[in-house]
Amino acid sequence: MLYKFGKCSAIFKQMADESFLSQDEIDMLLQSLGKEEETKEEEVSYKPFDINELERISPTRLVKLEQVVNRWIASATIELRGIIFNLDNIALSEIKTEKISDFVLKIPLPAAIAVLNIEVLNGRIYMVLDTRLIYTIISIIFGGPAQPYKVEGKSFTKFEQKIIGNLVDILVKHLNNAWVELIREGDIQFAGIEDNPRRLITISRNEIVIVITLEVEIEGFKGYIYLAIPMKTIDPIKDILRTADTESGNFRDVILSSLMNTPVVLNAVFPPLTMRVRELLELKEGDFVPLDPRATDSITVKVASVPMFRGILGESAGRKAVKIKSFADHSVRGSE
Fold first, then answer.
1. 123-129 and 208-218 as β-strands: parallel, antiparallel, unpaired?
2. Counting CB atoms within 10 angstroms of each CB, which of 4, 223, 278, 285 has the fewest?
3. How far apart, in whole angstroms, are the C-alpha atoms of residue 106 and residue 197?
4. In sequence order, what DSSP letters do the residues of 125-142 get, joined into one string?
């Protein structure tokens, strides 16, 4: 129990009279007592809750989006090798989510940001070319080594802007093709190139974007291409992006069409013929090699050295031909 100041003073005075405490000790205790009577308010620390920080869509579950990216990489790489002769590989590095404000801070200057529209979704996506990658490509075009020029924050020249424009045109074309084939929700259209990363923040600094990172390797140098997709842009089609349909729909039709148009070489093989070494060595140009009379009735048709059909030798329209009679005993047809 704490006593008020007046009562405590009387008690300590009485204790002093009894030679228990000196006057200095009494003064020290009185000072301490005054401090104990003071109450301190505890500071409550808190952090405001921002609902925009919630990741409503997990990028790891967007299976079809990853399929779009892989197809985009495969087709764009072929055409880019016509410009970047030393291009080794383009690969998907990672897919993650982060605030757009954090993403913007990572974009070096001068910036090369292609702004893309998806009209059906009423949203935009952003393609960012790594500045060091751009200068490396420029070096290669002029016959230099695969290493970037010194980036000093200067603006791109008109010639450099022309090269950037050509790269963006190729990348957007193949991205749109992959998007249309797999997603079938509008076209991706090029809107322009932005050089100020801060202009990407159109609504909220806490807006969540899916950042897709592509790693570009050129003679040991590694540069990056980033594709930033705001969550609000793909929210209307999130169910489509979560569903893989590699075995159905347009993707399956494309694969079948490609397979059906693949050229193959057929070889008609007669049954083996046995000869002595002496007879083989005596053969010369113009000699006839007699076949077993039954050979023409037992022709094996092979595809890539794999027996596919059995047939008989005959003629068709004045040309030698093989009439298919049955499948080979060990046929590897996919329908079986």
1. unpaired
2. 285
3. 9
4. EEEEE-HHHHHHHHHHHT
Look-up: residue for tokens 């301190």? 40
Domains along the chain with CATH numbers: 5-37 (no CATH), 51-259 (3.40.1550.10), 266-327 (2.30.330.10)
Asked if the peptide bond before residue 110 counts as cis, ω within 30 degrees of 0, the response is: yes
Are 308 and 333 in contact, with CB atoms under 8 Å apart?
Answer: yes
| Residue 152 token pair | 């000093």
CB atoms near residue 164 (< 10 Å): 19
- Give the mean pLDDT of 109-130: 86
Measuring CA to CA, which residue among 114, 71, 9, 70 is closest to residue 258?
Answer: 71
**0.90 exceeded by pTM:** no
pLDDT tens-digit series, residues 95-114: 888 888 888 888 877 888 89
H/E segment holding residue 301: strand 299-303
| C-alpha triplet 72, 78, 81: angle, nearest 5° | 125
- The structure tokens listed for 48 are 């405001």
Sign of CA dihedral 96, 152, 194, 220: negative
For residue 54 the two structure tokens come to: 């919630």
CB 156 within 8 A of CB 164: yes
3-class SS at 117? Answer: strand
- 203-224 pLDDT, tens digit per residue, is 567 788 899 999 999 888 888 9
**Average of pLDDT values for 16-42?**
57
